[in-house]
Design goal:
Blueprint lengths: L8 H9 L5 H19 L2 E4 L1 H16 L11 E5 L26 H9 L2 E6 L33 H8 L5 E6 L5 H7 L2 E4 L19 E6 L2 H11 L17 H4 L8 E5 L9 H16 L3 E5 L4 H19 L17 H12 L2 H14 L5 H21 L5 E5 L15 H5 L6 H6 L2 E10 L2 E9 L4 H14 L11
Parallel strand pairs: 2-3, 2-4, 7-8, 7-9
Antiparallel strand pairs: 1-3, 4-6, 5-6, 5-10, 9-11, 10-11
Helix pairs in contact: 2-3, 5-6, 7-16, 10-12, 10-13
Length: 486
């Protein structure tokens, strides 16, 4: 079989079990695609070819011996370069960690390793997940496979771009304020932001500890449902993971959506948004109606305050989390001069402009005399945003919104204007502040660029958003569209 790299996870699973091809053949096709296209897309920071092929061979041997194996076993996965991986370089796309090799696995990586997954390598991102375009990488910008002159979104842009270009079967990302959802929309793949605490953050480099979440990208919602079953759940090493039941998502998504109530918030249809984006969301709402759902107009009145609150809370937590990168214990160390010089020189040379910007904003907002005026006020707004969603979910089961005001923008278009870049997150940040789950699925195009829709659900109700997304993909083919990169 040719082009095995284009298979979905479930197709790859079926093919392996039926003996149509081996894991080595599947993995080799992924590496062939990477070598063919990554000079254009620039998704990968570190390839893991030797270990990946060894993992594939180990699966093939176990399969031949008749061992009972996981549905994820033998299947290649793309990993955002923010997950710690034993013996494999993990940089967070920062020069300060350019040569860092962790001695342990993140919980998600350990779970996948235990299931027999094949690790293709680590992909690019905005440095320490700070950014929305993958232009803030300490190494190079990643390009959108649909238009190489445009951004793939961020911060998980490498994951979405690599998957859209069929360099792997599925991918891991992180989402703090939209970092899975926006790249999924821009690159035309499916992506899930889980509820805060649904998946362990242990071993994932922290940016904003009260907002960071871990989630998958895949070629279909059906694939995401399968992946989530294996990575979700309680982790004793992460106290923010509650002991909440992990649903059988693959079974739950088979239920239809007749009678389901879908909210359409008026605040998410703002003046100046791209007409194509607006039309794709409204067309999806109409499709849901045809499938038996009820569309209900709702209001989330504090939406306009969410971005401002987020960009206080996020930098405040960044300023604390980034203190560990001081040139003393690991990473880049400029050991010339006294202790203060080591701190200053290591951080000055190792950290990029956006990271420094957020550290300074956060340190200022937390300083004596400003805490009440900024951080405390932002946390109060966060509570109001959460209450808006709590009220809305009394009347609806899920909420349907755009992902971003427009499709992917040109490389360099917004990098010089941080405020304009921050406003790209206006539709994704509110759900992050409330700790909700949110699924993005492809829903068409605007000016030949992919447009996704965002389906938001209650905390720990991933089964419902996945159900809605899967049922939508059963009656549409947008998720099967591929960029032309040949």
């Amino acid at each position: 079989m040719a082009e095995l790299n284009k298979l979905t996870l479930l197709e790859a699973f079926a093919g392996l079990r039926e003996g149509k091809f081996t894991s080595r053949e599947l993995t080799q096709d992924c590496f062939d695609q990477i070598k063919k296209l990554d000079d254009k897309v620039k998704a990968f920071i570190t390839l893991n070819e030797d270990e990946a092929l060894a993992q594939a061979d180990a699966f093939d041997a176990k399969f031949k011996a008749g061992e009972s194996l996981s549905p994820l076993a033998g299947i290649p996965v793309i990993i955002k370069d923010i997950f710690c991986t034993t013996g494999l370089k993990t940089t967070a796309a920062s020069k300060i960690l350019a040569d860092y090799v962790p001695p342990f696995d993140a919980d998600t990586i350990k779970r996948l390793r235990d299931e027999g997954a094949v690790f293709l390598g680590k992909v690019n991102m905005d440095e320490f997940a700070m950014g929305g375009s993958t232009e803030n990488s300490g190494f190079f910008p990643t390009r959108n496979p649909w238009d190489l002159e445009r951004v793939p979104g961020g911060s998980s842009g490498g994951s979405a771009a690599a998957l859209a270009a069929d360099m792997g079967i599925y991918a891991l990302g992180t989402d703090t304020g939209g970092s899975i959802r926006e790249p999924a929309s821009f690159c035309g793949v499916s992506g899930l932001k889980v509820s805060y605490g649904r998946v362990s953050r242990y071993g994932v480099m922290a940016m904003t500890s009260s907002l960071d979440t871990i989630g998958p990208f895949a070629k279909s919602v059906e694939d995401i449902a399968l992946i989530l079953k294996y990575i979700a759940g309680r982790d004793v090493k992460d106290s923010t993971t509650p002991d909440v039941v992990v649903d059988d998502y693959s079974e739950e998504i088979k239920k239809d959506i007749k009678g389901l109530k879908v909210g359409l918030p008026k605040e998410y249809f703002v003046e100046g948004m791209d007409a194509g984006v607006r039309d794709r969301v409204l067309e999806a709402a109409k499709k849901f109606e045809e499938m038996g759902a009820e569309i209900i107009d709702i209001s989330l009145p504090h939406t306009d305050l969410a971005v401002a609150a987020y960009y206080i809370i996020c930098p405040c937590e960044v300023s604390s989390n980034m203190a560990r990168y001081d040139g003393m214990r690991y990473g880049l160390s400029k050991r010339d001069g006294d202790l203060l010089s080591i701190y200053l020189n290591s951080r000055a040379e190792g950290l990029g402009a956006e990271v420094k910007r957020r550290i300074m904003i956060g340190t200022y907002a937390l300083s004596a005399g400003y805490y009440d005026a900024y951080y405390k006020k932002a946390m109060q707004i966060r509570t109001l945003v959460r209450q808006d969603f709590d009220e809305a979910f009394k009347d609806v089961d899920v909420i349907l919104t755009p992902v971003a005001p427009a499709p992917a923008y040109k490389l360099g278009e917004k990098i010089g204007d941080p405020l304009k870049m921050y406003l790209e997150d206006v539709f994704t940040i509110p759900a992050s502040l409330a700790g909700l789950c949110g699924l993005v699925v492809p829903a068409g195009f605007s000016e030949n660029l992919p447009v996704g829709i965002q389906i938001l659900g209650k905390r720990f109700d991933e089964k419902t958003v996945l159900r809605v997304g899967h049922q939508y993909q059963l009656v549409t083919d947008w998720h099967k569209s591929k960029p032309n990169l040949s």
